[in-house]
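Structure in, sequence out. Go:
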């Protein structure tokens, strides 16, 4: 042990002295200690020993650098959190040297002691978790640090080790670790105005009211009241002016002694037993608590004349007391009498006073005679000396003796309760406390170097982080000296003043921190404390919602690699001192802006969101091999993914000297890789001599295939020099970024004499050190690497007027709504710029890619922002309330919005004929049909994606779906029409292969299928069913069992159907599955999940789950046992029957029964979540939906699906609504779903060019306009070429002829069209356009406008004849023939009317073109606005109106 200790000191002058002390202590430290771990006090707690239980040392260990042994946690802790008692030799038996076990030699001293990692959080936590800074590995040579770098102090209260006795106290001049050199303080110029403390407090009035002047009941509920740090501790938090009973007498032996019980004259055993409880307060606490007696507090020499004389006949009762059930009564004083010679105790359990025998307080008092000098006011001024001084300077005595007096009529000695009960007490309770503070605290000087005012200035100049000053101030206030117990004090000396420990010491420090943050005092340091506190206080949310990784099956678990304490440690370091002397600091916010820390919080949440998608979600440090090239994973992806070349990611010219050189001979192997079954292995790199060429990863075999060279997206077929893949929390990659790491944090910094956080790691020679060195440095290394890149590359981003910090502030101050900011940051993080395509990033001059998982990154940020309650804690300034209009708006009573009444689909007049299902149509499609449909699907890729694969962002904008892609659709269509197939009766219909219109049959079936897919899932970009049903305005967690009153696990197959009887899955109540997707709006419920437990509801206001008490869904379920069968995939397949069919025909069951199976390795009954979480999910979502379409639509027994489809196609009029009307009848849904399904069906026909889009000679589509619906486009007439030319929810619609009619009409002032007249447009051979009207007053074919030959060729607008009309009854519709409803739905009818069919009495001229002209429905924000008749909505639906407007009826313009 001595040899080991000698190595820690290099000074030859002190070595012998230290060694002698250590030797002496080592010989005695373990005597009678048993099996213990103890610090060596002679070595200032830098070493510790383990005792073997035989009075001898078993082992001696060193604490790592900057750590000391902490007895409170039985391990090494930060030096600033440990008070090491001074060691002094004691006379005790010593052990012979032979009894000591041999110690370890310097060569094998462990860098970490075996029982715990030195950087871990102590087992015994303080009130809040202490943060850590990343540490260097313990070594013989300490890391070089500049003199002006201070250690990172915990932003939470310091856990202090209390000495066992006063003799163990350590004096100020024997601190084991000197404080670092303070940073220079900033001085103000001579011209700056002096600070105004009153203006400062006034400007922070709101923060003080919210954070400081709050009182709490025993249950913790707060309400506003009055003052500051010690005042918060003494009085404000309990809203008490008077001191109250807080000390319980735990001396049961004394209080229960037979002597005392017998001397009381009564009480017997009952009194004794009651007095031995834990909830008993001595009535004599009025005399003093914490071992003190207030009436004996004497003034110092020369001030004795100021003290109050004790009046033993005074009778007083406190005005206030603590409030909770059965709480002790207010303090009281009164003289002893014959009837009451002693006082007892207050029994909280019974809620009454017991006085059968004397009951002592901790000072030994058993009466309250003369005990009227308890604490009063904001800081509870107490004792005869302090109250006497108040009277001498502020009270009646001052006035009587001719001195100025604030309260000349108040005798504070005769009536001390005036502080709380006098008419002026609202002011007096503050004034008296401030007087005591100025007289006793501000003037404190121990004459030995500790001066309050000097220490106060040092505290401020050092950044308000040295909490020893706060602890010392607490000692001065409560005990009279800065380091209690005070010299010369004793339990019976001066009323016990100065003895014992500080009451509520930790709470006082915590309250001081609260005030500093509320007042934003300390600038950057206050921001740091607030930022760390924000995320430390949300440790549970961080661990349960943020730092969660996902299994390949979609189940969430606590991340193994990314821990909360590592996050706080790295954040504290990079946000406080930063890197390169503060050049690279994490942005904490704005110190001079109210609640300026909110910017830092949003910056941190943005970092976490990006980190989650890069690494936390996969629990990975190394970059995964995820990019496929022709359905294979190239091994050369280690050279770069997303079309990048990591080794060519060079620094700017002015930073080129930092860049790592590429060494072809370098060999590295990643530590982590993707976890799904047979996923690609870890990345590797090496010279061509080792790996001449590389192939691909065969995920079917689960191994590398290097038989042939296989190139990545950039054509690389080797991995030479490809060691720079992404690592760490945000996947730092490229030679430039690793070079900067080494230059500022790694070995190069240390070699060149700069401060190095990781001096032993050469990130250029060993980039894998980021992931493979966590055993040495702790998990914070992976966080630190990410934080450093964030400060270097993201926070400094300023390109083309787009500045990250400015945009961050705009986003925050704008109410957290501009989600385009998130997409821009995703671009910067992932591919280097805010507006892709990015140039020059990734090693190539014209890299054109989108951020990986762009949509997911945005959704994740929104989820984190909600879960961490950022908007709730930092609300933007409210917008000014608009002035009311001078006159009320009159609305006629008949004006009822047409959309308020639900509409119902009415069946046709004649019931459809039910025919047997055409089983021949379910067989394997002929090759001809497959080839034809494949050609058309490929040709329509662009239109298909643009019109159909669009999802709604929570902001209301449409963008390409992340989950549903054209590639996934095409792959699924191949599997459902060719190859192994889904079974001979279950092929997806794509045409018969021999009819003239076989292709059209297939395309229309696909169009109907995709229209339903958009309605169910694509529009929401959801794979798992969203929890949308509320019960009593709450979202039950048990919605996973079923919504709309359904029970998915009870949805068994039909026993009467021989094709499906008994196919349902067996319900396993122990199954646990976590959904992958959920609704994207802020506050939306999380993904559905199931498991053997009871559950509550999702609180969408707080963003948290509440499980106590359990909460029922609409089906009265309050548990989720066996509830794993919610909807998944493009058609939301749900229920045990549907999943059983999937397994029987497509999954593991088919394979086990030796039948063909598309997915033989997926058991849909045991893992239904595979649809959304399997690696093949992009096609599985489509395949399962197509199979479900076959089962529920193509094979329907109730409807003539195929005959109607063929009749529709053979008729040649694809604008006719008869077929989609049948589909709507089959699938049902609410009005919005029917409307969306109808619209998307026609869009799908446009995508397949069945509804053609004519073009002029330039190839530009004509008659294309923006709108939320076809009719809306015709009313707005905003030209467009593609959907991207339209704003918000609007799309680009073709064949919008209504926009051309007014222009033509303007050419002839006399042109008029009667209501009900139909307008058609015909193109002549010369290219001139003519407009003809059909009606009573016009001549058919009359030419209204002749256009030049180069004018766009007008289209012939197909106006379908129909037999469907609106009315209150069939007879009403047949007699009026006014409003047609071609689609067969009541959506096109006015309120109170329905759509009726088979009305042949109406003329064909009365079609829906005329009906649109005669409509009395108009758009507006309200009825009055709609009465301006600016925009029509003929069908009566809101979808035809602009954003923020609705459709109103009965408007006569």
């Amino acid at each position: 042990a001595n040899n080991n200790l000698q190595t820690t000191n290099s000074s030859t002058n002190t070595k012998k002295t230290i060694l002698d002390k250590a030797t002496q202590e080592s010989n005695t430290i373990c005597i009678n200690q048993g099996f213990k771990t103890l610090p060596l006090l002679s070595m200032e707690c830098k070493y510790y020993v383990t005792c073997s239980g035989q009075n001898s040392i078993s082992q001696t260990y060193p604490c790592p650098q900057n750590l000391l042994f902490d007895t409170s946690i039985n391990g090494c802790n930060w030096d600033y959190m440990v008070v090491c008692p001074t060691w002094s030799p004691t006379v005790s038996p010593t052990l012979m040297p032979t009894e000591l076990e041999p110690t370890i030699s310097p060569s094998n001293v462990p860098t970490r002691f075996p029982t715990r990692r030195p950087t871990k959080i102590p087992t015994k936590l303080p009130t809040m978790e202490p943060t850590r800074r990343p540490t260097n590995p313990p070594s013989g040579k300490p890391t070089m640090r500049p003199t002006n770098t201070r250690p990172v102090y915990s932003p939470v209260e310091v856990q202090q080790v209390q000495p066992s006795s006063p003799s163990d106290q350590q004096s100020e001049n024997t601190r084991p670790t000197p404080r670092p050199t303070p940073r220079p303080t900033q001085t103000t110029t001579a011209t700056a105005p002096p600070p105004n403390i009153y203006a400062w407090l006034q400007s922070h009035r709101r923060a003080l009211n919210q954070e400081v002047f709050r009182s709490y009941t025993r249950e913790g509920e707060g309400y506003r009241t009055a003052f500051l740090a010690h005042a918060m501790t003494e009085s404000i938090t309990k809203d008490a002016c008077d001191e109250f009973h807080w000390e319980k007498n735990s001396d049961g032996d004394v209080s229960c002694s037979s002597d005392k019980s017998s001397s009381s004259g009564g009480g017997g055993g009952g009194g004794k037993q009651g007095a031995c409880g834990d909830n008993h307060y001595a009535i004599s606490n009025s005399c003093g608590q914490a071992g003190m007696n207030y009436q004996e507090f004497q003034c110092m020499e020369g001030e004795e004349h100021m003290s109050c004389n004790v009046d033993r006949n005074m009778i007083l009762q406190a005005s206030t007391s603590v409030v909770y059930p059965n709480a002790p009564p207010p303090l009281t004083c009164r003289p002893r009498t014959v009837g009451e010679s002693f006082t007892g105790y207050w029994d909280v359990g019974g809620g009454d006073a017991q006085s059968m025998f004397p009951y002592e307080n901790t000072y030994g008092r058993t009466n309250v005679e003369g005990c009227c000098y308890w604490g009063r006011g904001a800081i509870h001024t107490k004792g005869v000396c302090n109250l006497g001084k108040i009277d001498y300077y502020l009270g009646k005595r001052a006035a009587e003796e001719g001195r100025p007096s604030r309260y000349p009529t108040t005798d504070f000695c005769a009536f001390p309760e005036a502080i709380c009960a006098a008419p002026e007490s609202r002011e007096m309770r503050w004034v008296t406390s401030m007087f005591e503070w100025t007289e006793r605290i501000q003037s404190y000087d121990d004459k030995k170097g500790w001066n309050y005012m000097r220490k106060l200035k040092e505290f401020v100049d050092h950044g308000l982080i040295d909490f020893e000053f706060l602890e010392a101030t607490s000692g001065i206030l409560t005990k009279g000296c800065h380091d209690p117990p005070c010299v010369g004090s004793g339990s019976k000396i001066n009323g016990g003043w100065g003895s014992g420990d500080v009451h509520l010491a930790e709470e006082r420090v915590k309250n001081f921190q609260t005030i500093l943050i509320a007042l934003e005092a300390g600038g950057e340091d206050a921001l740091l404390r607030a930022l760390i506190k924000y995320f430390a206080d949300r440790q549970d949310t961080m661990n349960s919602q943020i730092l969660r990784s996902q299994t390949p099956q979609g189940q969430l678990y606590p991340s193994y690699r990314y821990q909360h304490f590592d996050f706080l440690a790295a954040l504290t370091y990079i946000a406080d001192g930063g890197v390169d002397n503060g050049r690279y600091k994490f942005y904490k916010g704005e110190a001079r802006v109210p609640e300026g820390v909110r910017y830092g919080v949003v910056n941190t949440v943005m970092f976490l969101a990006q980190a989650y998608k890069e690494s936390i979600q996969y629990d990975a440090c190394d970059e995964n091999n995820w990019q496929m090239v022709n359905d294979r994973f190239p091994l050369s992806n280690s050279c770069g993914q997303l079309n990048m070349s990591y080794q060519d990611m060079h620094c700017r010219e002015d930073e080129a000297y930092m860049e790592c050189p590429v060494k072809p001979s370098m060999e590295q192997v990643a530590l982590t890789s993707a976890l799904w079954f047979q996923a690609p292995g870890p990345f590797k790199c090496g010279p061509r001599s080792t790996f001449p060429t590389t192939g691909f990863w065969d995920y079917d075999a689960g191994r590398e295939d290097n038989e042939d060279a296989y190139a990545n997206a950039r054509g690389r077929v080797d991995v030479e020099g490809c060691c720079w893949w992404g690592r760490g929390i945000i996947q730092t990659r490229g030679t430039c970024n690793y070079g900067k790491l080494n230059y500022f944090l790694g070995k190069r910094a240390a070699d060149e004499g700069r401060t190095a956080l990781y001096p032993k790691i050469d990130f250029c020679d060993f980039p894998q050190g980021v992931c493979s060195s966590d055993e040495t440095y702790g998990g914070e290394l992976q966080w630190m690497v990410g934080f450093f890149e964030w400060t270097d590359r993201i926070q400094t981003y300023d390109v083309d007027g787009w500045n990250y910090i400015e945009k961050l502030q705009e986003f925050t101050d704008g109410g957290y709504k501009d989600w385009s900011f998130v997409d821009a940051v995703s671009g910067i993080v992932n591919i280097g710029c805010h507006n892709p395509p990015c140039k020059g990033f990734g090693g190539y001059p014209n890299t054109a890619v989108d951020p990986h998982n762009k949509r997911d990154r945005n959704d994740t940020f929104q989820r984190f922002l909600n879960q961490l309650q950022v908007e709730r804690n930092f609300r933007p300034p409210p917008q000014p309330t608009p002035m009311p209009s001078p006159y009320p708006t009159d609305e006629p009573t008949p004006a009822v919005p047409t959309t308020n009444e639900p509409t119902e689909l009415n069946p046709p007049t004649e019931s459809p004929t039910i025919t047997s299902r055409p089983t021949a149509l379910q067989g394997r499609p002929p090759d001809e049909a497959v080839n034809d449909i494949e050609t058309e699907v490929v040709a329509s890729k662009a239109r298909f994606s643009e019109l159909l694969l669009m999802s709604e962002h929570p902001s209301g904008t449409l963008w390409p779906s992340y989950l549903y892609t054209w590639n996934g659709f095409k792959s699924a269509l191949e599997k459902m029409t060719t190859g192994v197939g889904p079974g001979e009766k279950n092929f997806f219909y794509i045409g018969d292969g021999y009819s003239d219109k076989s292709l059209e049959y297939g395309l229309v079936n696909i169009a109907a299928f995709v229209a339903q897919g958009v309605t169910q899932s694509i529009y929401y970009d959801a794979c798992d069913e969203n929890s949308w049903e509320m019960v009593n305005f709450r979202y039950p967690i048990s919605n996973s069992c079923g919504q709309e009153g359904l029970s998915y696990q009870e949805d068994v197959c039909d026993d009467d159907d021989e094709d499906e009887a008994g196919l349902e899955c067996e319900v396993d109540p122990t199954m646990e599955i976590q959904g992958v997707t959920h609704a994207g709006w802020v506050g939306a419920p999380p993904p559905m999940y199931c498991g053997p437990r009871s559950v509550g509801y999702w609180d969408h206001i707080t963003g948290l789950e509440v499980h106590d008490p359990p909460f029922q869904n609409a089906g009265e379920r309050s548990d989720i046992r066996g509830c794993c069968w919610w909807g998944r995939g493009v058609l939301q397949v749900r229920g045990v029957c549907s999943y059983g069919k999937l397994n029987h025909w497509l999954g593991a069951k088919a394979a086990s029964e030796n039948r063909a199976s598309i997915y033989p390795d997926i058991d849909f009954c045991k893992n239904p979540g595979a649809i959304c979480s399997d690696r093949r999910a992009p096609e599985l979502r489509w395949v399962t939906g197509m199979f479900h379409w076959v089962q529920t639509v193509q094979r329907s027994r109730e409807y003539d699906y195929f005959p109607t489809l063929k009749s529709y196609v053979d008729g040649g009029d694809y604008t006719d609504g008869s077929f989609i009307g049948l589909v709507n009848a089959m699938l049902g849904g609410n009005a919005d779903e029917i409307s969306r399904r109808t619209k998307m069906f026609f869009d799908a026909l446009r995508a397949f060019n069945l509804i053609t889009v004519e073009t002029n000679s330039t190839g530009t589509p004509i008659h294309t306009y923006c709108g939320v619906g076809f009719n809306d486009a015709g009313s707005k007439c905003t030209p467009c070429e593609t959907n991207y030319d339209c704003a918000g929810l609007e799309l680009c619609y073709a064949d919008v002829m209504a926009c051309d009619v007014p222009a033509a009409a303007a050419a002839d002032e006399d042109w008029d069209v009667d209501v009900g007249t139909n307008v058609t447009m015909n193109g002549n051979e010369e290219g001139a356009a003519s407009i003809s009207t059909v009606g009573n007053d016009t001549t058919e074919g009359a030419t209204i406008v002749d256009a030049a030959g180069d004018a766009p060729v007008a289209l012939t607008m197909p106006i379908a004849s129909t037999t469907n009309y609106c009315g209150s009854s069939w007879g009403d519709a047949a007699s009026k023939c006014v409003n047609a409803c071609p689609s067969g739905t009541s959506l096109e009818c006015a309120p109170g009317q329905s759509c009726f069919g088979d009305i042949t009495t109406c003329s064909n001229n009365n079609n829906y073109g005329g009906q649109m002209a005669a409509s009395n429905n108009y758009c507006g924000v309200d009825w009055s606005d709609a009465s301006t008749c600016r925009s029509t909505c003929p069908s009566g639906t809101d979808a035809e109106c602009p954003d923020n407007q609705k459709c109103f009826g009965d408007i006569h313009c």
